[in-house]
Amino acid sequence: MHELGTDRIGFRLGRLRRDICVLNTSEADWQAVWGILLEWTPPASFSVSGKIESMPLGVEAALESETDSLLSFYVGPIQLACHFFSAVEIEFDFDPRQVSGETEIEQLDRFMRLLGDATGKQVILTQENDQEAIIARYSPDLETVVWPAFS
After folding, report:
1. Of 52, 119, 121, 138, which alpha carbon lies 20 to 30 A from 29's?
2. Which domain of life is it from (predicted)?
3. What is the mean pLDDT of residues 47-72?
């Protein structure tokens, strides 16, 4: 358990969304994460230009710049969204008001570890669009999520 409380880690402060990011990614990294999300329970919702479609087996279609793709799924009660902004960054955003306690923090913690272990890369949780405002960080070599601003 983290013993951090949602106020201390900034989930109840402001209305800015939070981002979970894997940086410097390749198509292989995307495909590893995509494979996990294809099996996600409850199933993820995939849409193109606002129209719900079946998730393709490969992530390539979602990464094409001319499509307006959106992937939405839940980690516990927290709805995460991926807008496929860049092939070199895997990014999921969420509303911090959906994090109401220790259970949700643990669910985010597990999701960050899952991403890092699948890609072999560092995962960061930040303020929206601000990769310098790190709330938490996971590195596969450390095998734990570190909440640097609050440790």
Report:
1. 52
2. Bacteria
3. 87
